[in-house]
Amino acid sequence: MAQPSILLVEDDRMLSEAVASALRQDAWHVDAAYDARSAQIALVDHAYAALLLDLGLPGGSGIDVLHALRGRYDATPALVITARDQLRDRIHGLDAGADDYIVKPFQIDELLARLRAVLRRSTGRVAPVLHYGNISVDPARRVVTRAGKPVRLSVHEYRTLLALMERQGRVVARAHLEDVIYGDLAPQRAMGDQQSHQLQQEQRQPSAALRDPARDRSTR
Ligand code: CA
Predict the structure, then answer these.
(1) In a domain? residue 217
(2) Distance 9 CA to ligand 1 centre (A)
(3) How many angstroms separate the alpha carbon of residue 39 from the centre of ligand 1?
(4) Residue numbers of the domain that contains 139
(5) CA–CA gap between residue 159 and residue 165 (Å, rounded)
(6) What global pTM score does this model have?
(7) pLDDT tens digit string along 30-79?
(8) Cα–Cα distance between 166 and 220 in angstroms, integer?
(9) Strands 78-82 and 50-54, sheet pairing
(10) CATH code (residue 92)
(11) Number of structural domains in the chain
């Protein structure tokens, strides 16, 4: 879906730069976020191969970032970085959906090894492939196929499709879809400019939306 890359969320700039540089040497593309909100926005806008997440962040906790991520069924592997060597934080992190954690201070080599382990485990993760007609969605590999051929989707399209496939035969409320797609950012981002413009047009011309196509043809 996107170029394989890692989101590094760490507000200590020196540590962030050291980790990012090691990851780049390891041939990863790295996006760095320095607070909880920009991490959330990055995770909504991109599909990352993995997330490296510090827990103590300006503007919110890494735990909140994890909750939002897992709340929209995003299985991006997450390795939590914590300065707080406390059992409670680790349990919170794992409960919130972290795949593993590493305690500061750590050796960069250890972080890279744990990241590789998390990625290996995630590719072996058992997640059922979903089918509807000739469409298949493999959540573990984030691969969508139609009649056996791969389909390229944007991140938002993929999340919408996955949410609908998981609830086949049931009514899916718009609010639920917004939650799945946008998480906590739903109120601001729920409606793109274009959709919003289309809706405004329809509200201005209610008859246009309800027009009978047969009558349209007859008046042409
Ligand atoms: Ca921190």
Answers:
(1) no
(2) 9
(3) 13
(4) 130-210
(5) 10
(6) 0.61
(7) 999 999 999 999 998 888 989 999 998 998 889 999 998 888 878 899 99
(8) 43
(9) parallel
(10) 3.40.50.2300
(11) 2
